[in-house]
Amino acid sequence: MLSGTAAARHYGYSSARAKAMGSKLIDRKTMNDIINAKDISTIIAILFHGEFKEDIEEFGGLEIKNELIDFALSKNLAKNVGKLVHISPSTERKLIRAIVGKWDIYNVKLLVEAKERHQSYEAIARYIIDYGRYDATAAKEAMREESVEGLLSKLMINSPYADILRDALESYKKSKSGAEAIATIDKSYFKSLGNVIVGLRVTHNESARIIKMDIDMKNILYMLKAKHMELKFSEISGSMIERGNIGLPELEQIYNGSKDVETMALQIKAYDLKNAVDVYKQSKVKQLLVFEIGLRNAIFERSMSLLRHSMLTFGTILAYAYMKEIEIFTLRVLINSRIYGLSKEETSRLIVWKTE
Fold first, then answer.
1. pLDDT the model gives residue 353
2. pTM metric for this prediction
3. Dihedral of the CA atoms 276, 282, 284, 290 (nearest 10)?
């Protein structure tokens, strides 16, 4: 790990830029104002006076239609993700490209799900992150294929993710299930990050921990969904992702020792999901979204600590990446809370946003 003058030369510019970008994240007061906003128009007015002004203007300004809000949020995320690669030191660009590749993967999973449901590109366009290998143009072109197999084959051509997509294609051919293909994509992507995680543990251990928290979240949400469907662990073990902070044997023990979603969530001691369990119990509509929010809160808090307290390290760049993603996720939850069946009170109890 670099230190002193060497660290200043290597990370000075990128750390300063990442911290400057972090200072533009929505602060606690503004997020509380958004939570308490009486309607979506009020939320838009609040966002318009911050970093999202340019993106909202592109899709109609203050008169933006509700269905276009997600376009503006996706545009903002894509714009900032692109900056991270450019501000990173040349020696770390391969690392940051591998990590922000999750948004390429996100787009692919979105396309697979849409194709299986026979949806058009227009039906999902608002959620596409217009960045990277599978930006809006590539996504629209791929959606012209007639089947999931055709779509994956199209996306595989000359792609750095060819191996990941090949695994997904084989999985789909065997199962004829988009969910199985998506689970395979997640597993293969994080497996490909294995060397990145090992390398970070040597030089940037706290950064590695955040990535491993992301793996934990994938595994836990998958387990919660499976428990809700009353599946056996043996039926989902092949889709679990290794290299998280919580080992697979421990996750299996938790799963098999739980009678339902609530008891399983409470057994996961690495993450405090008690508040999420309380909201889940009280909600008329049992949405696993409450647990995703709880897990993302944990990643947010860890990332926020890293961004604030790390000086002249790769961690400042990585922390911003996760915090920006969670900011967009949080805004989508707030704007679409009625669709998810969550009241303002339920949502405000769950969302943690402590940037100052």
1. 66
2. 0.83
3. -10
